[in-house]
């Protein structure tokens, strides 16, 4: 039978794609219990976890990005895009077997339909690949496996179609469905494969709406000590207070997720600086983020109009986190030199008694409001976003808070 070898390659490639997408979906689904889990992220499922490589690793960045799932405001975590990828690979494997079971002109038309639909995962891979490289500047091994399986599927399906077209018809097969009918049927089959997978996934998802707004509140959101820093100029009616450390990787990741979700535009964000650095913070017994006190002072100085906007210093701190922390481990003055080198106008303010007193007031505000020694934390109109909802559940839970008026 012409094209048999190529069709066998299509089936194998689809099974590999199904496996890679399945492991990715499994990793995603594990997080639906609102706990922290390892990411397999390996061509051999379970062979090596990715979490040990840090929060900035490719798989972690990719999965926590707003591009890893859809309908995030409707479902906690949303629907992972790897789920329809699984369904699509299963559908293509089924279509390849359908070609093997046909004869004559029916086989030729079915092979053409298979080739055409094999472009679907390739187009999706191109889109997601560009997003990963341009927007996320990261890539995960499982994603690369899906991309490769998609390309092999398309090439093998194309070779199978070409081989079958060149071969003489073995039967007249006058009653074979037309190419148009086969295409319509294929669309319906693909919809059924994807629909069944999505409906089954949604049916098994936990309902976390009961947790929204249940993780505590601030008794008072006023700022008599003038310790809060505006992070935007939004005129939104919802007020958000972020407790964060400028050298905290989790704070940077949270900021990226919040901005990526677009929900940052629905709130007016104010920051309470909470550096996890024992050079100024007596609540920690070691410098978890060396240099964080100095960088916090720089942000407060900028907020007082000493130089650049405070948001510019925050953004620089996020980008230079690793360098500042590393340089400050053995050199207490390294952070100040890096700040002054980047923002010379802040040199006369950083380290001054006035800014140190303001930072101390910020820490005492945290004590007065019984803020846990943890960053980041977000309060919307005084109601706390649960820590478990700051990653995959951000859009769902924050949208819930906003709809409820932040618990007001």
Instruction: Write down the secondary-structure element order.
Output: HHEEHHHHHEEHEHHHHHEEH
Runs in which pLDDT lies below 50 for 5 or more consecutive residues are 48-56
Using only C-alpha atoms, the radius of gyration works out to 27 Å
The CATH class of the largest domain: Mainly Alpha
Helix percent band:
40-55%
Q: Going across the biggest sheet, name each strand in turn.
A: 3-5-4-6-7
Number of domains: 2
Q: Helix count?
A: 14
CATH-defined architecture of the largest domain: Up-down Bundle
Q: Helix- and strand-based class?
A: alpha+beta
Task: Give the amount of beta strand, in percent.
Answer: 5-15%
CATH topology heading of the largest domain? de novo design (two linked rop proteins)
Shape verdict: elongated
What's the rounded overall pLDDT mean? 90
First and last CA, distance: 70 Å
Please report the total strand number as a whole number.
7
Can you summarize the main beta sheet?
Answer: 5 strands, mixed
> Can you tell me the CATH superfamily of the largest domain?
VKOR domain
Describe the protein's architecture and organization.
The chain is of the alpha+beta class and 408 residues long. It has helices at 4-30, 58-64, 82-100, 104-117, 119-136, 141-166, 179-204, 249-261, 292-303, 310-319, 321-328, 334-342, 353-368, 394-403, and strands spanning 69-70, 79-80, 229-230, 238-244, 267-273, 377-380, 383-384. The chain folds into two domains: 4-204, Up-down Bundle (de novo design (two linked rop proteins)); 229-403, Glutaredoxin (3-Layer(aba) Sandwich), CATH 3.40.30. The strands form two sheets. Strands 3-5-4-6-7 form a five-stranded mixed β-sheet, with helices on both faces. The radius of gyration is 27 Å and the shape is elongated. The termini are far apart.
């Amino acid at each position: 039978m012409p094209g048999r070898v190529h069709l066998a390659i299509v089936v194998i490639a689809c099974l590999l794609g199904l496996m890679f997408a399945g492991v990715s979906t499994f990793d995603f689904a594990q997080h639906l219990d609102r706990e922290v889990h390892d990411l397999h992220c390996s061509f051999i499922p379970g062979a090596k976890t990715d979490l040990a490589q840090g929060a900035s690793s490719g798989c972690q960045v990719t999965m926590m990005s707003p591009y890893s799932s859809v309908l995030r405001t409707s479902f906690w975590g949303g629907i992972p895009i790897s789920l329809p990828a699984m369904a699509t690979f299963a559908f293509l494997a089924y279509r390849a077997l359908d070609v093997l079971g046909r004869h004559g002109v029916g086989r030729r038309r079915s092979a053409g339909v298979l080739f055409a639909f094999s472009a679907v995962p390739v187009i999706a891979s191109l889109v997601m690949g560009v997003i990963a490289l341009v927007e996320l500047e990261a890539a995960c091994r499982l994603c690369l496996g899906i991309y490769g399986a998609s390309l092999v599927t398309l090439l093998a399906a194309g070779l199978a179609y070409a081989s079958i077209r060149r071969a003489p018809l073995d039967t007249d097969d006058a009653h074979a469905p037309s190419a148009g009918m086969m295409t319509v049927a294929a669309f319906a089959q693909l919809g059924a494969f994807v629909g069944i997978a999505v409906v089954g996934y949604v049916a098994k998802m936990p309902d976390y709406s009961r947790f929204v707004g249940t993780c505590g509140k601030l008794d008072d959101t006023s700022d008599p000590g003038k310790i809060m820093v505006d992070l935007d100029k939004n005129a939104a009616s919802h007020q958000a207070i972020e407790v964060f450390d400028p050298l905290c990787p989790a704070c940077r990741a949270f900021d990226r997720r919040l901005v990526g979700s677009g929900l940052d535009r629905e709130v007016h964000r104010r920051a309470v600086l909470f550096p996890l650095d024992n050079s100024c913070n007596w609540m920690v017994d070691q410098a978890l983020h060396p240099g964080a006190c100095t960088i916090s002072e720089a942000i407060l100085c900028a907020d007082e109009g000493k130089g650049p906007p405070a948001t510019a210093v925050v953004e620089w701190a996020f980008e230079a986190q690793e360098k500042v922390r590393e340089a400050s481990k053995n050199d207490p003055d390294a952070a100040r030199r890096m700040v002054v080198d980047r923002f010379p106008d802040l040199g006369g303010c950083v380290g001054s008694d006035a800014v140190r007193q303001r930072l101390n007031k910020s820490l005492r505000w945290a004590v007065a409001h019984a803020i846990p020694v943890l960053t980041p934390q977000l309060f919307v109109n005084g109601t706390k976003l649960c820590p478990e909802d700051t990653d995959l559940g951000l859009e769902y839970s924050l949208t819930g808070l906003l709809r409820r008026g932040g618990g007001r």
